[in-house]
Structure to design on (1346 residues):
């Protein structure tokens, strides 16, 4: 039911009522049956110094001129008003206020009542009303104009009208709230000048709470009636009213205080604290008697007397009953307590409860649980006997902590209504701000060129046309009028116009980019998203800048949201459609190319020597789109670079292969075709050389490598992102592959983004060393999430994303990955989005197929090797003297001898590995080396694995099923073989002894401590063969020479390489291969 | 309040799954503080979110100055919500004041909770003999008078301090929610908070607890976490986060989410 205007007017201040009258007049003029929010808006806009208009002016979008936007607003408003049904009957004198408008008024009333300055006022009013009249209705709140505006803007109809004119209601609300020109977060948070008052507003406690503060009883708040401040007592009362467990035992540091205050409440018969049923309780405190009974003299006479008294009282009691307080439980639990007295006390109290049941309560307190526990240990049934209920007391009484504040709480305070605080709102603004897609840099370049042309050369006809056509039609009609204004304004308008054009351009290039370019690279727009989050301040700055600075427009306006719905111009559309044609025609071409590439790449692994293979440059790498200005509508040549590669015989895989380029005109292309192909940022130049390069860096994984290359080459042709999962052991090998791929395909190792999804996993030394090569590494201490990090990095340039332990991914990462796989886009939590074509995603997992296990009888396991630490190495020389006394005594030298004998026995034979085997067995026998190799047999891997899974993930089965899903969707799963460290160890030993033989020339034997061997293996694993070989050739060789010179090695001597504990210098700790070997 | 309590406190249940997770925000924030934690759990948990009655997003009229003098009233609210949603077992994650509320709720209704995760919890903020709570009474009074003098200034000063780390986003978010609270309520609640002393009753807790504590927290010294662990009655573990600040869910959501995942019962 519509409300009569008079009734509505009563709720409004004079100012607001005037606005309402005006609205009513508008409605009457138009012959409408009701006065709606739209009428109100129209009236608000037409007011002199209209605050709404002012607010709009401040929020206006810098894409359009102020006047254009206001014109648009007027138009859309009048159109909406026209749409309202006019009443058939004769004009109503005062069209009543519609429900929606009335609701808005009510809303603003409620809002206003909630504001603190008004709060006290209304409370006062209410009190007065209650005092002087029985009428207790809500006092009438006169709505101020500002509040009215705020709530009217909430009306969907109104916000639609504003939206059509390019305003956002929430912006206007903001602008309404902050009226000063300076804009600072503090202002945003509420200090607006409007609310500053000459004297601090009365607030809550400075009102009339003075003087009454303190004391245990009745702290009265001005508006709340009697305030007891004793929540604890109330709770005690609640417990006492129960049927069972009705005797409260207060527990807590302040329990004794709570008890005291409760008893006081009862004794003084303060009303309003205890429940109705308990009024008229009487209290008996037996604390002192208990104390006397239990302490020392064991005088239980007074206590007995007291209990008799209690019994008498209960029997003669007319009220609800008696409360017997036994005070602090500590007394009962004291060490020096008289045990007989205690027993008597406990049983007597229990009996009292049992006998008098409903009429008698016990009450007591204990500071901590421990005190109660002690009693409970002595009397396990006390809880039942006494019918106790434990009541945690967690806070002192309110008034104890200090008097209640009485002050002017803050000078000015604007509760920012609902709209500022609501989480959904925040979310929507942030996501709006960031939803747009980043352009790739080529497009950005083009775009910037055009913008430059625009700002230098002034108005370019076609662009302005385009811009106009991008505006809603009614805006176009408004344009000429705007231009006919005074020249000074025109100048300003021009700049705004320009910025509108720039936005048009931006849109255009965005859409082009989105359509054709999958590689999203960093564009300026990207950095703009961040300031967006800094709040509205930026927007303000931007506007100011925009009006001054034409050349900056390109950046300024990128985030303006009003433009979101501006469609790309028709001319762009045209181009797009024709470019699609172009794409399809070139697709045919590329498909033909792909075929040949495919056939080649499949041969690669089998081919031993490079046959000259013709290979297309993956079509994507070097196709340059013609650079053209948007106005030229002539035909464009499309260059398709077909790289013919004559590679694969060259030794260095990294040198760029010469390419000769075919420039072909696309025959099928029609005249005005803009065409731009996907710019692939990596090109699989020559799969074969790639293979070679990889094999050179990563040992023992030839099969895996060929599978990877195969996948990449195949996938690269279809211009998609590539997803490969590396499964199995050889952690470092996988990383190496990732790093190598980044270097070869993307040009630098910086293109590897490394994320270990198994965060708690601590780094082993070797991995730490390895990870130094990785520059882009996600760290859990980084504030953003993994997804945020990836989006940020990927938006800079396409990269290889290396997701270690992908099976451990959390939900958010899982979802993002799935989504990315499906849509080709990565979206982070804030709504930023990045295209991931041309990216390679490498996941790793240590899991194998469930049936497979990696248990094997290997001597050196990956885990051990990775755990190896760098230390300095020393050479010790021992001699094979059977009668050496030390040899007999110490197990260590025993070990040497054993080994030596074996070694001497078959030094020349090839089975050095067996000698190592013996070493190991010897170690097994001698307990001193237990921690080295022995427990680290393959079985341990299994153990750690299962262990990890049992406790790593709360939903392990869930994540497993996810992982299976994931595994099924990715392009390829590559199995890695375990790295064969034993063979490597063999090889190393051989190298060493060869080296020694070269130095000494005779048959002296070498022995390498397992720990040293681990270290060397780790080095080999980490770096490469060559580096270790070099190290042997140089460092070890030198050491041998030195040792030879010092001791004169002969056939009976044993050269032993051992770790040198404690003497490690920093430089040696750095790497795994020390620069010098000590001689002892 | 009664029937409309769910509405008044903006109770939301999101996500799907058998397990129920209650996320309870702390002093000065509202449920939006969990926004960045939430996505990690919605798939396999039903997550219950609600606002404390003192939060800025709750109509201040609901804040009854007589009722909310101790935390017990907040506990009542929590238990009421859980009962109204017919929740029989849940995992409870509470931050700051809500951690305390969780402890009390678990004492009263141990059967309701499978586990408590306490973030930045403290049984007592004031120092005492043999106990380091982090604050002296005089300091507190200073804070209170600063709050009274100029709430806005206090918020602007306190927010970065509480967030602890250089994360402008989190500071902004915390200032926003803190400022949304009506200052008299803020003051009242802070007094309540500084009045609480749970030390005597920790032993009553039987529910296993995970205590998540950041390395540097202006409100809670690291020793408090150890104190909690030693005195809580149930099985309890301490997870130290190597970051700063009292609001890890705002400043380092990812890290906290990982830690939470680990802490949740499986």
């Amino acid at each position: 039911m519509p409300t009569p205007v008079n009734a509505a007017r009563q709720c409004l201040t004079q100012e607001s009522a005037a606005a309402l009258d005006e609205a009513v007049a508008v409605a009457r003029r138009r012959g409408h049956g009701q006065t709606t929010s739209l009428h109100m808006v129209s009236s608000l806009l037409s007011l002199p110094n209209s605050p709404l208009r002012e607010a709009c002016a401040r929020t206006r979008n810098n894409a359009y001129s102020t006047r254009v936007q206001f014109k648009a607003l007027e138009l859309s408003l009048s159109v909406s008003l026209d749409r309202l049904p006019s009443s058939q009957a004769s004009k109503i004198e005062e069209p009543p206020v519609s429900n929606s408008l009335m609701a808005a008024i009510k809303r603003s009333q409620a809002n206003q009542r909630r504001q603190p300055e008004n709060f006290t006022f209304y409370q006062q009013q209410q009190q007065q009303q209650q005092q002087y009249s029985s009428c207790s209705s809500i006092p009438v709140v006169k709505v101020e104009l500002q509040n009215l505006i705020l709530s009217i803007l909430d009306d969907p109809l109104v916000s639609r009208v504003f939206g059509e004119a390019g305003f956002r209601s929430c912006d206007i609300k903001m602008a309404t709230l902050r009226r000063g020109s300076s804009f600072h977060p503090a202002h945003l948070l509420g200090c607006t000048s409007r609310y500053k008052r000459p004297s601090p507003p009365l607030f809550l406690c400075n009102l009339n709470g003075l003087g009454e503060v303190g004391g245990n009883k009745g702290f009265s708040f001005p508006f709340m009636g009697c305030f007891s401040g004793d929540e604890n007592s109330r709770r005690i009362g609640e417990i006492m009213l129960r049927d069972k467990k009705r005797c409260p035992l207060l527990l807590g540091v302040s329990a004794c205080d709570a008890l005291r205050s409760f008893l006081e409440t009862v004794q003084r018969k303060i009303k309003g604290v205890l429940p109705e049923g308990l009024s008229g309780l009487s209290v008996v405190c037996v604390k002192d008697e208990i104390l006397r009974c239990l302490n020392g003299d064991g005088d239980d006479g007074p206590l007995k007397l007291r209990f008799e008294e209690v019994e008498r009282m209960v029997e003669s009691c007319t009220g609800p009953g008696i409360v017997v307080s036994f005070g602090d439980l500590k007394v009962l639990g004291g060490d020096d307590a008289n045990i007989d007295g205690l027993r008597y006390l406990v049983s007597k109290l229990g009996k009292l409860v049992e006998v008098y049941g409903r009429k008698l309560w016990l009450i007591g307190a204990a500071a901590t649980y421990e005190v109660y526990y002690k009693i409970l240990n002595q009397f396990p049934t006390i809880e039942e006997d006494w019918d106790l209920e434990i009541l945690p007391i967690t806070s002192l009484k309110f008034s104890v902590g200090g008097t209640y504040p009485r002050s002017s709480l803050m000078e000015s305070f604007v509760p920012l209504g609902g709209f500022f605080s609501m989480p959904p709102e925040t979310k929507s603004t942030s996501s709006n701000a960031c939803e747009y897609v980043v352009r790739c840099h080529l497009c950005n370049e083009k775009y910037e060129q055009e913008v430059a042309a625009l700002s230098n050369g002034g108005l370019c006809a076609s662009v302005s046309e385009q811009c106009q056509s991008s505006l809603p039609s009614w805006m176009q009609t408004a344009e000429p009028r705007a231009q006919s204004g005074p020249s000074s304004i025109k100048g300003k308008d021009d700049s705004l116009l320009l910025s509108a054009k720039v936005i048009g351009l931006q849109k255009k290039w965005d859409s082009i980019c989105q359509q054709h370019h999958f590689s999203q690279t960093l564009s300026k727009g990207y950095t703009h998203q961040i300031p967006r989050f800094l709040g509205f301040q930026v927007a303000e700055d931007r506007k100011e800048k925009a009006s001054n600075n034409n050349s900056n427009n390109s950046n300024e306006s990128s985030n303006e949201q009003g433009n979101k719905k501006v469609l790309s111009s028709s001319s762009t559309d045209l181009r797009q459609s024709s470019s699609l044609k172009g794409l399809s025609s070139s697709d045919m071409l590329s498909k033909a190319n792909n075929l040949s590439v495919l056939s080649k790449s499949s041969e690669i692994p089998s081919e031993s020597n490079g046959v000259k293979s013709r290979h297309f440059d993956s079509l994507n790498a070097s196709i340059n789109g013609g650079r053209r200005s948007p106005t030229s509508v002539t035909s464009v040549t499309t260059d398709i670079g077909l790289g013919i590669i004559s590679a694969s015989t060259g030794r260095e895989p990294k040198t760029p292969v010469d390419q000769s380029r075919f420039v072909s005109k696309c025959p099928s292309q029609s005249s005005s075709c803009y065409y731009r192909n996907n710019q692939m940022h990596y090109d699989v130049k020559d799969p074969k050389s790639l293979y070679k390069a990889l094999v050179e860096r990563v040992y023992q994984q030839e099969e895996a490598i060929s599978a990877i290359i195969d996948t990449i080459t195949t996938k690269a042709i279809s211009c998609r992102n590539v997803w490969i999962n590396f499964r199995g052991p050889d952690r470092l090998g996988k990383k190496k592959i990732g790093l190598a791929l980044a270097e070869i395909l993307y040009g630098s190792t910086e293109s590897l983004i490394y994320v270990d999804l198994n965060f708690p996993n601590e780094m082993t030394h070797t991995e730490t060393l390895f990870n130094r090569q990785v520059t882009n590494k996600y760290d859990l201490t980084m504030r953003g999430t993994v997804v945020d990090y990836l989006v940020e990095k990927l938006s800079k340039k396409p990269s290889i994303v290396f997701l270690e332990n992908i099976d451990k991914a959390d939900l958010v990462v899982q979802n993002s990955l799935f989504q990315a796989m499906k849509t080709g886009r990565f979206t982070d939590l804030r709504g930023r989005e990045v295209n991931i074509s041309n990216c390679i995603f490498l996941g790793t997992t240590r899991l194998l197929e469930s049936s497979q296990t990696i248990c094997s009888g290997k001597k050196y396991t990956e885990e051990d090797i990775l755990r190896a630490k760098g230390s300095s190495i020393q050479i010790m020389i021992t001699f094979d003297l059977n009668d050496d006394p030390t040899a007999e005594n110490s197990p260590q030298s025993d070990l040497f001898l054993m080994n030596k004998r074996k070694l001497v026995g078959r030094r020349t034979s090839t089975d050095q590995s067996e000698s190592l085997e013996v070493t190991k067995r010897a170690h097994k026998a001698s307990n001193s080396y237990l921690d080295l190799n022995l427990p680290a047999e393959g079985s341990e891997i299994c153990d750690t694995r299962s262990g990890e899974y049992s406790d790593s993930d709360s939903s392990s089965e869930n994540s497993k099923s996810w992982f299976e899903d994931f595994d099924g969707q990715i392009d390829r799963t590559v199995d890695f073989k375990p790295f064969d460290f034993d063979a490597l160890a063999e090889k190393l030993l051989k190298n060493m002894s060869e080296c020694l033989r070269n130095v000494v020339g005779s048959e002296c034997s070498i022995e390498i401590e397992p720990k040293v061997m681990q270290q060397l293996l780790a080095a080999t694993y980490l770096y490469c063969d060559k580096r270790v070989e070099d190290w042997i050739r140089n460092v070890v060789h030198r050491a041998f020479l030195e040792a030879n010179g010092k001791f004169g090695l002969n056939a009976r001597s044993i050269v032993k390489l051992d770790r040198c504990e404690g003497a490690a210098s920093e430089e040696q700790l750095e790497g795994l291969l020390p620069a010098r070997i000590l001689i002892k | 309040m009664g029937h409309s309590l769910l509405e008044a406190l903006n109770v939301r249940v999101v996500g799907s799954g058998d397990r129920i997770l209650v996320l309870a925000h702390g002093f000065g924030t509202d449920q939006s503080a969990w926004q960045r934690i939430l996505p990690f759990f919605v798939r396999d948990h039903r997550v219950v979110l609600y606002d404390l009655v003192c939060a800025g997003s709750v109509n201040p009229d609901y804040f009854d100055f007589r009722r909310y003098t101790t935390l017990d009233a907040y506990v009542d609210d929590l238990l009421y919500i859980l009962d109204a949603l017919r929740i029989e077992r849940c995992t409870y994650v509470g931050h700051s004041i809500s951690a305390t509320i969780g402890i009390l709720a678990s004492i009263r209704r141990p059967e309701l909770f499978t586990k408590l995760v306490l973030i930045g919890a403290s049984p007592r903020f004031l120092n005492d003999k043999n106990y380091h709570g982090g604050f002296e009474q005089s300091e507190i009074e200073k804070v209170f008078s600063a709050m009274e003098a100029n709430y806005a200034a206090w918020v602007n000063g306190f927010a970065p301090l509480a967030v602890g780390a250089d994360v402008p986003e989190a500071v902004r978010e915390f200032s926003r929610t803190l400022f949304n609270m009506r200052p008299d309520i803020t003051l009242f609640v802070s007094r309540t908070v500084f009045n609480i002393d749970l030390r005597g009753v920790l032993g009553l807790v039987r529910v296993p607890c995970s205590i998540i504590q950041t390395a540097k927290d202006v409100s809670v010294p690291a020793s408090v976490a150890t104190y909690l662990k030693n005195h809580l009655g149930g099985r309890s573990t301490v997870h130290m986060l190597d970051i700063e600040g009292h609001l890890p869910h705002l400043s380092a959501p990812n890290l906290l989410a990982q830690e939470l995942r680990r802490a949740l019962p499986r």
Notes: The mean pLDDT of chain A is 62. DSSP finds 45 helices and 19 strands in chain A. The CA atoms of residues 299 and 339 of chain A lie 12 Å apart.
